[in-house]
User: Which sequence fits this backbone?
């Protein structure tokens, strides 16, 4: 199979940066991701990332600058600015060891909670744009609307329509001062220096100011759907609170703050699952059906009352 021009060029650039201008080396390169929204190549200790088509250079620049300023929280880039290859913005990063998806017992929930609390407590630069979480959810729903006929479309869209306008990216977010990651999940943590350095957050594409509870929403949604064990959710939430995270109260029920973002992330994930199943002409798997069922049940549970909307 022949690599497309972007992937070929990205591999060459990663090798050149890793070996100070020469690609003549025995270590080779590995493609970490090659999707329409991101192409990522690793060469030795260097990672090159081609961002999604249409990524705004003026929005990416302050996000890169912030990552460079917060090396104790975010993985800092190897170069201060993005370059352009084949119409895509490209950035370069040090390699970090990712979370092992096959060993859930070692999932760094405490590290995720602590790093997130530290990020949320960091003053946001004036030039930083808004956090892109709601916009990504809206994009997933827009794709679902054009995916084709499927019985799961109606409950997902119904749950989406019940969310407040800000969660659907149709109105300003109620908080425009708190620094947020925008797309927090365990895949956004790596150990740096590899293989066993401290954990750091990666992926600055959605970084910005906004509602900090959005960053807790994915694990909260999976907990509410019964897909994340209560003890793992408790570890994450307790670490975030111990770190002084401002998204939820210091103690007591956190759900008044988490309910709307958790519902939004459930809809986003379900929309992506249904869109993918339609494209692949297959039935939903067990986890995907659980998310769709959660969307169907949201209509019978008033918002901000319970974390058990999916049970």
Assistant:
């Amino acid at each position: 199979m022949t690599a497309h021009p972007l992937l070929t060029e990205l591999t060459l650039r990663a090798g050149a940066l890793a070996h100070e201008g020469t690609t003549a080396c025995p270590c080779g390169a590995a493609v970490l991701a090659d999707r329409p929204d991101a192409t990522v190549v690793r060469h030795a200790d260097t990672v090159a990332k081609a961002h999604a088509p249409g990524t705004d250079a003026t929005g990416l620049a302050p996000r890169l600058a912030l990552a460079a300023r917060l090396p104790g929280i975010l993985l800092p880039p190897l170069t201060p600015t993005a370059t352009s290859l084949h119409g895509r913005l490209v950035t370069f990063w040090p390699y970090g060891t990712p979370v092992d998806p096959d060993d859930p017992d070692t999932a760094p929930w405490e590290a995720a909670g602590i790093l997130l609390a530290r990020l949320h407590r960091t003053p946001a630069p004036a030039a930083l744009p808004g956090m892109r979480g709601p916009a990504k959810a809206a994009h997933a729903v827009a794709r679902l609307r054009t995916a084709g006929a499927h019985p799961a479309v109606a409950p997902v869209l119904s749950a989406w329509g019940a969310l407040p306008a800000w969660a659907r990216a149709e109105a300003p977010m109620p908080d425009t001062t708190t620094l947020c990651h925008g797309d927090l999940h365990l895949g956004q943590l790596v150990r740096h220096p590899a293989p066993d350095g401290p954990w750091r957050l990666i992926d600055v594409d959605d970084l910005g100011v906004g509602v900090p509870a959005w960053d807790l929403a994915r694990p909260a949604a999976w907990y509410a759907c019964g897909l994340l064990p209560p003890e793992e959710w408790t570890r994450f939430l307790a670490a975030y609170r111990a770190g002084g995270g401002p998204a939820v109260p210091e103690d007591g029920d956190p759900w008044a703050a988490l309910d709307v973002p958790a519902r939004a992330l459930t809809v986003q994930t379900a929309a992506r699952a249904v869109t993918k199943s339609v494209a692949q002409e297959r039935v939903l798997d067990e986890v995907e059906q659980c998310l769709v069922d959660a969307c169907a049940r949201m209509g019978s549970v008033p918002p901000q009352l319970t974390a058990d909307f999916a049970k």
Q: What stands out?
A: The mean pLDDT is 93.
